[in-house]
Amino acid sequence: MATAEPGLQAGDGLPTITRDVLQNTAAKIGIRVSEHLEEEFIETLAAARDAMEKVLQMDDFYPIPDTNRYPRIDIQAVSPDENPMNAWATKVTVKDIQPDEASLKILAGKRIVIKDNVCLAGVPCYLGTDVFSDWLPKTDATVVTRILEAGGTLIGKATCESFSAFGISNTSFLGPIGNPYDKTRSAGGSSSGCGVLIALGEADLAIGGDQGGSIRLPAAHCGIVGLKPTFGLVPYTGIVSNEISHDHTGPMSVDVLSNALLLRAIAGVDGIDDRQIAGTPFPAQVPDYPTLLTAARTARSLLSIGIPSNATGREPGSTRKMRVGILKEGLEIEHMDPHVRDTVETAARKFKELGAEVVEVSVPGHIQASLIGRVQRVSQSNNLLGRANGTRQLYLTEFIEKVLPWTQEKFDKLFCNSANILISGLYADEHYPQLYGKTQNLFRKLRQEYDAVLADVDVLVMPTTPWVAKVMQPRNASIRDHYKDYNGLAESIQWN
Ligand SMILES: NC(=O)c1ccccc1
Predict the structure, then answer these.
(1) Which of 69, 215, 237, 412 lies in the 20 to 30 Å Cα band around 356?
(2) What's the ipTM?
(3) Which atom of ligand 1 is nearest to the CA of 246?
(4) Is position 191 annotated as part of the catalytic site?
């Protein structure tokens, strides 16, 4: 038998810190601990390990859902014949069991679905993947709590694309999600199930998630209204992150007014998510968005008299016409479908007819934004690798425990979008460690450019996507073909 390595022995089955463990750890950054220091570093590393093991044994701390008042009734996997579009991940009913009170509230009577990356305690969260299939979250997302407290009825979870990481709806393990207007085409993603269930009238409202278009794309492709709220306006607490600086959650609906209603119910700081930086109102101070909209009464008065001053920060009583800025660069995307351009130009003319002032505006940086964003999105790998990120928020440690450790079997089950993010992330760590920070700096510059234009116009108009919904590739299509559709460019792999 080989002589045991010197080092602290595992007292209570703790992993032993040996010379090899020490040196293999140091080797991750290409260094070696000098031999004469080995003994002492083994002791300090063992002390760190002891602390980690003790914290590992502690109970985690999540907000505790009120499952007595809001029980999870009739949780069911949906049979294929009830799920022709694959848009349902799980059906369940959750509502306030004190209906007298609920009937007075703003979401009373609304049937609401949530994207399947939003935690609903006790109900499976699949996240569009079968890398794991046994995650029953212990907590409710803040948006869930707020919907229930506002009298809404949750009716289930809507399928999302694999790890919320694709804009075409053929990446979920549950199967392709057909567009309501043409089953062979994409419904858009990654909040694909939400878009379809709203368009089909199976739900009144949905909670989607958006990092790089995941609310806006399915809304555009399904012909519904999807809002990606200002960063931080709605707490992301209890929702699986893709990239901490990209995470948004927001309402999807058939019309603008009901979208505003759901936004009102879910917006405002929750005291948990520190990305709700200064400026986000407390829930009681959230503007009454539906009333602001109805106060304007008609589109004509909204556009020609202007939106109510308390919504714009403009001086009270201001009657300036609404100024609509058509973003020049938004219509200069390479290979843009001419139908999309026509639709935007028709809308611009309509705004004019209705009394708004319509002007062309330019943000030169817009063209490069997608390239910078593509590099920044590589950091989604941090989430898949369970890495620390330094923000104060609710960490879904349960999710990290499901995903890690990566194994060949799990990797082989990944749809190519997530596999690509993982590999690109590991490569970036090694070869471009400064670039994530640089992308954040460049995005700050870009925000200044958009803000400068928004000082002059009330809204910027551009297409949500340069292409109409694509006919979906079969799941087993080549990676190259999946990405070709994603980018709309036959010859290049451009995004994600
Ligand atoms: N999560 C997202 O917003 C997303 C959208 C499109 C592609 C990748 C990610």
Answers:
(1) 215
(2) 0.97
(3) 3
(4) no
